[in-house]
Amino acid sequence: MSSSNQPPAQNQPYPLPVPGPAPVKTGKRGNGLGIAALIVGGFALIGAFIPILNYVAGFVGLVGLVLGIVALCLKNRKKGFAVAGTIVSAIAIVLSITLAITYTAGFAGLVSDAVRTAEAQSSEDANKEISVVYEVNGTATDASITYSTYTAGTNGTEQATGQALPFIKELTVEAGGDTDFTAFSLIATNGAEDTGSVSCKITVDDDVVAEQTSTGAYASVSCSASGVDGVTENK
Description:
Keywords: Cell membrane, Membrane, Transmembrane, Transmembrane helix. This protein is α+β, with helices and mostly antiparallel strands. The protein is about 35% helix and about 30% strand. It has helices at about 30-45, 55-75, 80-125, and strands at about 130-140, 145-150, 155-165, 165-175, 180-190, 195-205, 205-215, 220-230, 235. The strands form 2 sheets. It has a 5-stranded antiparallel sheet with strand order 3-2-5-8-9, with no helix packed on it. Strands 4-1-6-7 form a 4-stranded antiparallel sheet. The longest helix has about 45 residues, at about 80-125. About 25% of the residues are buried.
C-alpha cells in the first residue's frame, strides 16, 4: 500500500476577502417639529404683549407647546429647537393670560371711571337751578296776566287779573334731568280803560330771552322761549 502526497500547486490563486456590511451612521437627524414649535411660540410671545391679540396668543402658544412636547418625544432627533420651542411657548401662554387680565382690568377701570363721571355730570345737570323773571310794564291799571313754566318734566301756570303795572314775578326752577326741555311763556292784555302801552319780558339767568310791546285798549303782548337745558330758542 502506497500513498502519495502531492504538493499544492505553486501558482494556485488565494480566495478574495468578502467585504463586510457598511457601517451604520448613528448621528441624530434634524427636528422639524422642534423648529415649528419655536416659530409658533415666538409669534405667540410677540402677540402676548398686544392688547386684544393676546387673547388669541394663548391658543397659539398652546399649539407651540404641543408641537414642542411631541418633538421632544421623537427618537434620534435633535432636541435643541424642541426644548427652546417648548419653553418659549409656555412663557407665551403665561404672559398672554397675565397681560389679558391686566389689560381687561385696566379697560374696565377706564370704563367705570367714565360712567361715574357721566353719572356725576348728569346728576349735576339734573340739579341745575336757573332764575326766571317775568315782567310786564306799562301804564295799565286793569291788566290780565298769565305766565307758565315747564322745566324738568313739570308744568306750572299762574294767572293774575285786574293787575296794576308794573308786574314782576321771580322764580327759581330746576333744569336738566331726564327731561331737558324747558319752556317759558308770558301773556299780558290791557283792560278796556287802559289805552297806554303794555310790554312783556322774560329773563333767564340774567339773559333777556323774549320781549314784546303793544299799545291801546285790549292790547295784548306775548313772550315765550323754549330750549334744552335752559333756553336756546326765543319766540
